[in-house]
Every structure is written in structure tokens, then in C-alpha cells.
Design brief:
This protein is of the alpha+beta class and about 110 residues long. The longest helix has 22 residues. The protein is about 45% helix and about 20% strand.
């Protein structure tokens, strides 16, 4: 997963975006059991602030006995519009696979992109 808006800090992935209202970059750690975000005006400072934010989050989790990382079950409820649902079901049937297999394939495709 090599996306240009991901940043790895302390072994954890963060999504980075630019907020034009405050003219700063915003990072948000993904896969944690809570919010841990951070802001800076450049990448070097963003990494530094990300390390601080992650350290503070992990410290609080340890103090409170909270598991810091989310556990993903592998079950996902997807909502589509009626037309998209019908079209996806038709594509899956035409390919001889389940709708679930079609959706899983599409997700894997996007992850690899």
C-alpha cells in the first residue's frame, strides 16, 4: 500500500491531508481505538508532531488499560444504491462468483493501487 497521502510513524499508518482554511497539513492515525491527530506546516514537523501525538495516545491507553489498536472482524456491511447493487449482482453472476467475492476483489484492487 504505497499511497502518497500515507505516513508511517512508529509503525502506525496515518492519513495526511491539507487543510487550506488553516494552511496546515493534518495527519490522523488509522486503526487505533480512538482519535490521534496532529497538525504541522511541513513534513518534518508533521512527523515530529505525529510522534508526539502517538506517544501521548499510547501512554493514555497504557494508563487506562485500553487496547490501542482496533481489531477488525473481517465483516463489512456495504450499502449501495439500488442500481449499483443490481449492476454489481449482474457482473458477479456473469463472472460466476458471489457478490461478496466481487466486492472483496474490488477492495483488493484498490488496496494494491
Amino acid at each position: 500500500m504505497s499511497r502518497s497521502n500515507f505516513l508511517k510513524i512508529g509503525g502506525h499508518n496515518a492519513v495526511v491531508s491539507y487543510d487550506p482554511e488553516i494552511d496546515m497539513f493534518r495527519g490522523e492515525f488509522m486503526g487505533l481505538n480512538g482519535a490521534a491527530d496532529f497538525y504541522a506546516t511541513n513534513v518534518r514537523e508533521l512527523k515530529k508532531e505525529g510522534s508526539r501525538s502517538l506517544h501521548a495516545f499510547l501512554t493514555i491507553c497504557a494508563e487506562r488499560g485500553i487496547e490501542p489498536e482496533k481489531r477488525f472482524s473481517g465483516t463489512l456491511n456495504v450499502r449501495l444504491g439500488r442500481k449499483d447493487h443490481e449492476a454489481a449482482a449482474m457482473v458477479a453472476a456473469a463472472r460466476g462468483i458471489s457478490l461478496n467475492a466481487l466486492i472483496a476483489e474490488a477492495v483488493r484492487h484498490e488496496i494494491a493501487a
